Amino acid sequence: MTDTKPADAALLEQGEDRGGPVRAFVSSQVAGPLAALVLAVLVFSLTTSTFLNAGNLSLIATQSVVVGTLALGQTLIILTAGIDLANGAIMVMAAVVIGKLATDGNALWALVAGLVVCLVLGGLNGVLISRFSLPPFIVTLGVLSVLTAAARLYTDSQSYPISSDLLTILNDGPSIGGVDITYGVMLWIGLTAVLGYALTQTAWGVRVYAVGDNRAAAALTGIKVKRVLLSVYLTAAVVYAFAAWQALGRTPTADPSGYGTANLDSITAVVIGGTSLFGGRGGVVGTFIGALIVTVLANGLTQAGIDSLYQQVATGVLVVIAVAVDHFVRTRQTR
């Protein structure tokens, strides 16, 4: 008898090995970044006297949330073998829309408007890439250029101070053992958990990996590739809206010229976290760790009195090493 099992059930069975939480945590894609993070913390705690202070640990956590949240959405797109150079610009556009509307009206409706802005812009990217098969790099580069100008035109190049408690609440939070854990950090952890579950425990997640690994083969198995790609860009857009909220809490000013390198910073966190730029490998847990690695590295070198230019050199070297390792692993697997 032939197997008549539904396609989604078959996909889930194929993804079960990937989905085990313990197995995923100790897999090489997570273990490598985690070992690097532990090593960096160990080195800086031994070479500086202030690194492990409660205040400094709080600073590391809060400095990571905006790019870390943005990188979660970037991870989804890179898993499909795409890239989003406009994610930082989308976040800033949403932030200035929220900031400007909040000065004239209700902060809650301003947040909703920011979410709509992200969905429209993310959906535009998704449609151009999925329906018209345009290269993600070119599409998002063009959108980046447009939004960089649009944010300044919309605000007349002015910044809007944020006074609403709702818009800045993510920078508040309890103190645990002397370490301030903001609601923004909690949100970042929560988003990582939700997206991690969606990627490893649902048929949608398996399809995302399948599309990124081999788009043609995924189509032959019955996966609606265009629909999956569009859903990924829309989901990433929702994450960008949360990042905009995080940014307003982190620095209570809606600045159209802010976060100019957020797109590259998010890609750095994704790559250092073990997600392959070629698609189909990696995950949001690794990205979470990758964002912490970048912040710990910058913070630790600052604590050690190292020039910021050398910090950029160290981060760049880590990115090159991560990409080289991924290329080596993929080359061995295809032999």
Give a short synopsis of this structure.
This protein is mainly α and 335 residues long.
Helical fraction: over 70%
The CATH architecture comes to: Orthogonal Bundle
Structural class: mainly alpha
How many distinct domains? 1
The strand line-up of the biggest sheet is 1-4
Low-confidence stretches are: 1-7
Radius of gyration: 20 Å
Instruction: Please state roughly what percent of the residues sit in beta strands, choosing from under 5%, 5-15%, 15-25%, 25-35%, 35-45% or over 45%.
Output: under 5%
Largest sheet: 2 strands, antiparallel
| CATH-assigned fold name | ABC transporter involved in vitamin B12 uptake, BtuC
Span between termini: 34 Å
- The overall strand count is 4
**CATH classification, class level:** Mainly Alpha
Can you give the mean pLDDT? 91
Number of helices: 16
Folded structure, characterized:
With 335 residues, this protein is mostly helical. The protein is built from 16 helices and 4 strands. It has helices at residues 7-14, 16-19, 21-26, 28-47, 54-79, 87-104, 107-130, 136-155, 165-168, 183-201, 203-213, 215-220, 225-250, 262-272, 284-303, 308-334, and strands at 160-161, 175-176, 179-180, 253-254. The radius of gyration is 20 Å and the shape is globular. The two termini are 34 Å apart. Mean pLDDT is 91; it is low at 1-7.
List its salient traits.
single chain; 335 residues; mainly alpha; ABC transporter involved in vitamin B12 uptake, BtuC; two-stranded antiparallel sheet; globular; disordered N terminus; ABC_transp_permease
Layout of SSEs?
Elements: H1 7-14, H2 16-19, H3 21-26, H4 28-47, H5 54-79, H6 87-104, H7 107-130, H8 136-155, E1 160-161, H9 165-168, E2 175-176, E3 179-180, H10 183-201, H11 203-213, H12 215-220, H13 225-250, E4 253-254, H14 262-272, H15 284-303, H16 308-334
Helix pairs in contact: 4-15, 5-10, 5-13, 5-14, 5-15, 6-7, 6-8, 6-13, 7-8, 7-13, 10-11, 11-13, 14-15, 15-16
